[in-house]
Amino acid sequence: MTLAIGSPEFTIQPQPQSVFVGSTVTFSAQAVHTTGLYWQKDGTNLVDDGHFFGTTNSNLTITNVQPADAGNYMAVTTDPTNSQTSDSAQLSVFKPIQLGLANNSPAGVVLLVVNQDGSPFETNRIANLTILSSTDLVNWEDVTEDGLLTNGSVQFLYSFVSSTNCFWRVMESPSP
Q1: What domain range is 23 assigned to?
Q2: Nearest-5° Cα angle at 52, 49 to 55
Q3: pLDDT, tens digit (0-9, with 9 covering 90-100), for 5-37
Q4: Which of 4, 87, 90, 120 could form a disulfide with 16 if both were Cys (CB 3.0 to 4.6 A apart)?
Q5: Distance from chain centroid for Cα 76
Q6: Residue 28: which CATH number?
């Protein structure tokens, strides 16, 4: 008598994550009816190498995450006759940014956005920025504008505001 076992099937899917450079991130997946599991990034099999850990386990850990680690991660389960691929989970990797004011003149305020590590800000990231301002830290107004990349920093001119009693928030969303 043979026991019929179903095809591999995921019971827990990996979830998208967003982290800063240098962080540690863990993706998790679980499956039933499987004899093995391994992880892929953008369709390429991963191996444990001191940067990736658990490449053949249900938990994949990536240490000291770098921009090159951004991409789509998925788990693959196998049995003697079938395999199943999990949903893809996107890893977005951000460089910490730093804000500054270039000047406060009659023309207005120039808000500077730079990478905290001193590397040049990438042009393709400008469209991902959302800029908010507030005078009371409670009511935030979206003042997102087109920025100009100059000498590795993004400059935004706000002619309608002064730096006195003005607070800023800059957020970066993942690229589509």
Answers
A1: 17-94
A2: 95
A3: 678 889 999 999 989 889 999 999 999 988 889
A4: 90
A5: 22
A6: 2.60.40.10
Higher-confidence position of 148 and 105: 148
| Pairing mode of beta strands 52-53, 89-94 | unpaired
pLDDT at residue 1 greater than cutoff 60: no
pTM across the whole model: 0.70
What total of structural domains would you count in the chain?
2
In a domain, 31, yes or no: yes
Span 57-86, average pLDDT: 93
How many C-beta neighbours within 10 Å does residue 7 have? 13
Q: What's 116-162 look like in SS3?
A: CCCCCCCHHHHHHEEEEEECCCCCCEECCCCCEEECCEEEEEECCCC
Given a contact cutoff of 8 angstroms between Cβ atoms, the answer to whether 60 and 42 are in contact is no
Residue that finishes a domain, picked among 94, 127, 142? 94
Torsion of CA 7, 11, 12, 14, to 10 degrees: 30
**73: β partners:** 41, 89
Please check whether residues 51 and 110 belong to one and the same domain.
no
Task: Tell me if 38 sits within 8 A of 111, measured CB to CB.
Answer: no
Is the Cβ–Cβ distance between 42 and 117 less than 8 Å?
A: no
